[in-house]
C-alpha cells in the first residue's frame, strides 16, 4: 500500500513572483500488518531474545558459573542441580538467539514459556507479583512475549520468513506449540524434578 501526496500549483508565474509546479511524492504506507507491525515484532524479538540469552551467558561465565548455579538449583529443590543449571543456561541462550533472529519462532516461544513457568513457580511465587520484591512480574512478561510472538509469528524480518516457514510457526499451530507446548514442558519439569526442601523447624 502506498500513500501519495500532491502539491498543486499555488502561485502563478509573473514578474517578481515565485512559481510552484505540481509535484507528487509517493511513500510506502506503514500500516498495521505491514512494515510497522513487522518492525515492532523485530524490536520485541531482538530485545527480549538477547535479554534471555544474556541470562544463559551469565550462568556459564559469570559469578559462580555452572557449579554455583547448580548448587543454587539444589537449594531450591531442582535436583540434580548441575544438570538443571546446564539445561537452563543452554536453553536460555538457544531460545534467546532463535527468537532474536526469528528462526523456529514458536519453539523458541515455548522455551520462553517453559523457562518462566519453572522460574516463576520455583523461585519467585512466594514473593508476590512485583519484581522489586523479587516477585514473578518479570517471568510473566517474558512468558507472554514468548507466547505472543510464537502465536503472531516472527514477521517478515526473520529467518522463518526468508525460508518460507512463517506459516508453520504462527497462527493456531504457533499458539499450540508456544503456549500449550511451553506449559506442558514447564509443568512437567516441575512435576518430575521439583522437590522443595522441608522448612526448618523452629
What are the SSEs and their pairings?
Elements: E1 2-7, E2 23-28, H1 35-61, H2 65-76, H3 81-101, H4 105-124, H5 137-152, H6 159-162, H7 171-193
Describe this structure in words.
- It is a single chain.
- The chain has 202 residues and is mainly alpha-helical.
- It is 61% helix and 6% strand.
- It is built from seven helices and two strands.
- The protein has a two-stranded antiparallel ribbon with strand order 1-2.
- Helix 2 crosses helix 3 (81-101) and helix 4 runs antiparallel to helix 5.
- The longest helix has 27 residues, at 35-61.
- It is elongated and about 55 Å long.
- The termini are far apart.
- Main beta-sheet strand count, sense and barrel state: 2 strands, antiparallel
Strand content: 5-15%
Radius of gyration: 25 Å
Query: What is the count of helical runs?
Result: 7
Class from secondary-structure proportions: mainly alpha
Average residue pLDDT: 87
Q: State the helicity in percent bands.
A: 55-70%
Strand order of the largest sheet: 1-2
Give the overall form: elongated
* Low confidence ranges: 1-13, 17-21, 25-32
Distance between the termini: 70 Å
Encode the helix/strand succession as letters. EEHHHHHHH
Please count the beta strands (DSSP E, at least 2 residues each): 2
Amino acid at each position: 500500500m502506498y500513500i501519495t501526496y500532491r502539491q498543486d500549483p499555488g502561485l502563478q508565474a509573473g514578474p517578481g513572483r515565485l512559481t510552484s509546479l505540481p509535484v507528487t511524492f509517493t511513500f510506502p504506507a506503514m500500516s498495521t500488518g505491514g512494515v510497522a507491525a513487522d518492525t515492532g515484532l523485530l524490536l520485541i524479538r531482538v530485545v527480549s531474545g538477547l535479554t534471555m540469552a544474556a541470562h544463559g551467558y551469565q550462568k556459564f561465565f559469570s559469578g559462580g558459573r555452572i557449579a554455583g548455579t547448580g548448587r543454587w538449583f539444589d537449594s531450591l529443590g531442582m535436583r540434580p542441580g548441575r544438570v538443571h543449571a546446564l539445561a537452563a543456561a543452554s536453553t536460555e541462550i538457544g531460545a534467546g538467539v532463535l527468537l532474536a533472529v526469528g528462526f523456529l519462532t514458536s519453539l523458541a516461544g515455548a522455551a520462553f514459556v517453559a523457562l518462566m513457568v519453572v522460574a516463576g513457580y520455583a523461585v519467585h511465587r512466594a514473593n508476590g507479583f512485583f519484581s522489586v520484591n523479587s516477585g514473578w512480574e518479570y517471568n510473566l512478561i517474558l512468558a507472554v512475549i514468548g507466547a505472543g510472538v510464537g502465536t503472531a509469528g516472527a514477521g517478515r524480518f526473520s529467518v522463518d520468513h526468508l525460508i518460507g516457514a512463517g506459516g508453520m510457526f504462527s497462527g493456531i499451530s504457533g499458539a499450540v506449540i508456544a503456549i500449550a507446548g511451553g506449559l506442558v514442558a514447564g509443568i512437567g519439569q516441575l512435576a518430575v524434578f521439583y522437590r522443595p526442601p522441608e522448612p526448618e523447624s523452629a
